[in-house]
Design brief:
The protein has helices at residues 16-30, 46-52, 79-84, 95-101, 105-117, 130-134, 138-149, 177-194, 197-202, 216-220, 237-244; strands at residues 5-9, 36-40, 58-62, 87-92, 121-126, 160-163, 204-207, 227-230. By secondary structure, it is an alpha/beta fold. The protein has 2 domains: 1-63; 103-184 and 192-229, Aldolase class I (TIM Barrel). The longest helix has 18 residues, at 177-194.
Length: 248
């Protein structure tokens, strides 16, 4: 059985003090969760939020990591820097990183391998645009992202994959539970072909397309969906807690 994982992606929201207040509000609401709970926070919030999470069942995540251990990469943050503050997860290849900051399947792969080498758990994001879905290219796009982004990984079960249809992020549009389940099933099959069926069965795959308190139960009831990468709903303690506690 794959243990579900619900991860909040705060994106560029919350100062350090606001972040501390938010996790202090979330913690008592999710203390009895039956899933892994993660908050992925802006880099500047990590020290303060790390301290605030001590003694809770909430793990700390970052929103990006560089692939070099150190060097002349102004503005970047290494895996070792994240680990020193207790970061356990890191989002890699989010659609916004791909769209606005030139992230490619190649750099996703390099960042993923660097995170694994440092003992971090990558949450690797893949997904198609509205045009790609409407023109029947979803599977081809996802397969390319999988085969190029995940190559060279020794143990695929050490990562988390987040399927985030780009057309359903921040738009209010959501794939139906059946659509999401079917697409994630394709992702699992592709990973089974690339690695092995047993590996694919152990891999946790999240849905990252506007999961919220209203649709989380239906989505999480799908057999292929192992959790959610939550955007806007992770910024409000009651909404995020409702998703984490989807099974209650």
């Amino acid at each position: 059985m794959r243990k579900p994982i619900i991860a909040g992606n705060w994106k560029m929201n919350n100062t350090a003090s606001e972040g501390v207040a938010l996790v202090k509000a979330i913690a008592p609401l999710v203390k009895d969760a039956n899933c892994d709970v993660v908050v992925c926070v802006p880099a500047i919030d990590i020290p303060a939020v790390s301290e605030a999470l001590k003694g809770t069942n909430i793990a700390l995540g970052a929103q990006n990591v560089h692939f070099a251990e150190k060097g002349a990469f102004t503005g970047e943050i290494s895996a070792a820097m994240l680990k020193e503050y207790g970061v356990r997860y890191v989002i890699i290849g989010h659609s916004e990183r791909r769209q606005y900051f030139g992230e490619t399947d190649e750099t996703v792969n390099k960042r993923t391998l660097a995170a694994l080498a440092a003992g971090l758990t990558p949450i690797v994001c893949i997904g198609e645009s509205l045009e790609e879905r409407e023109t029947g290219k979803t599977e081809a796009v996802l397969e390319k992202q999988i085969r190029e982004g995940l190559k060279g990984i020794d143990d695929i079960a050490k990562i988390v994959v987040a399927y985030e249809p780009v057309w359903a992020i921040g738009t209010g549009r959501t794939a139906t539970a059946q659509q999401a389940n079917e697409t994630i099933g394709f992702i699992r099959k592709t990973i089974a072909d690339m690695f092995c069926p047993k590996c694919a069965e152990a891999l946790r795959i999240q849905y990252g397309g506007s999961m919220n308190a209203g649709n989380c139960k239906e989505l999480m009831a799908m057999p292929e969906i192992d959790g959610g990468l939550i955007g806007g709903a992770s910024l409000k303690a009651p909404d995020f807690a409702a998703i984490v506690n989807y099974d209650k």
